UniProtKB/TrEMBL annotation:
Gene name linked to the record: BZW1
Family (UniProt): Belongs to the BZW family.
Magnesium listed as a keyword: no
Protein known as: Basic leucine zipper and W2 domains 1
Region entry Disordered, spans: 1-26
Gene Ontology CC annotations of this record: cytoplasm
Keyword rRNA-binding: no
Top-rank taxon: Eukaryota
Amino acid sequence: MNNQKQQKPTLSGQRFKTRKRDEKERFDPTQFQDCIIQGLTETGTDLEAVAKFLDASGAKLDYRRYAETLFDILVAGGMLAPGGTLADDMMRTDVCVFAAQEDLETMQAFAQVFNKLIRRYKYLEKGFEDEVKKLLLFLKGFSESERNKLAMLTGVLLANGTLNASILNSLYNENLVKEGVSAAFAVKLFKSWINEKDINAVAASLRKVSMDNRLMELFPANKQSVEHFTKYFTEAGLKELSEYVRNQQTIGARKELQKELQEQMSRGDPFKDIILYVKEEMKKNNIPEPVVIGIVWSSVMSTVEWNKKEELVAEQAIKHLKQYSPLLAAFTTQGQSELTLLLKIQEYCYDNIHFMKAFQKIVVLFYKVLSEEPILKWYKDAHVAKGKSVFLEQMKKFVEWLKNAEEESESEAEEGD
């Protein structure tokens, strides 16, 4: 038997051929840029031809990998360096947004190019949003004309749904805000957006991304007031946007008022302090009394845990509301406020089924708070549809008594004359 170990064969010097598909292609945006620019040069400024070229090129060129380069070219004419400048030694094209005419019609045509491209290659959606966010951060590096074109284009793309309103976050960049670039850009953007849609559609898009209450952040902290925002955008021809922001501010102030009111009630603060606070907020935020009485009513009714038994809840409600009647009386000094309170009581009793039989008792309790005229008006034609037949029947005898009392006082007045 041979005890000598056999030498293992070696594979030194042998080479393995790597499959083509396993080789990682070198990242070369310059070569990609040259291909795109050459194609755009051949199509010229015919945007229909540009759209067809981009559609066909997606099958041959790696759009997924070079999305940023592609969008840089279509917007600025070539690859952008940090800060938004075009590199001097790079190829560039005039078939781009920045070299086009500065008018809305041209930007609408360019928006169609982007729209068709992204519809055809859905995977470009995220890359395009990232590109626009980047371009907004680069605004200071662009000329005023380039910024105007980009603003109009962005407005159109927001309107047709190609872009999501979350891209506007880039405009809150501290440096852009400080130098007034964000506000000036927003004027052009919102004009083109509202031109395509309307303020309600714009508001809905802003609400979806929680941007509806942040528009004042387009200005530095010392200018973040409704008055400054309204003046700036109204003078720029965007009155509907100014009114929208003012309304949003009012809604916010009303929510804050209700929250604070409920806290004061739960702490048991004296009514005189609560009334003083509410009146100050009314004046400061220009909230009318009929709106305030609705807020006070809601706050009063939310401070108690109601009994689930229908026969007991009416007694509990009368006791509770009797305690708060001075507070309600303080904000029913106008006929419209009294009518608003009646409608709020009607809606509450309808929406909370245990209160259906308590409506008339609550109104009678407030007879000292409410004058006869609003009660009669409510009964005649100012009520809402909710539980109408039930509540009108409950109020029938009381209204008849009011009418008779009114007639008697009129006849006594005539006899006195």
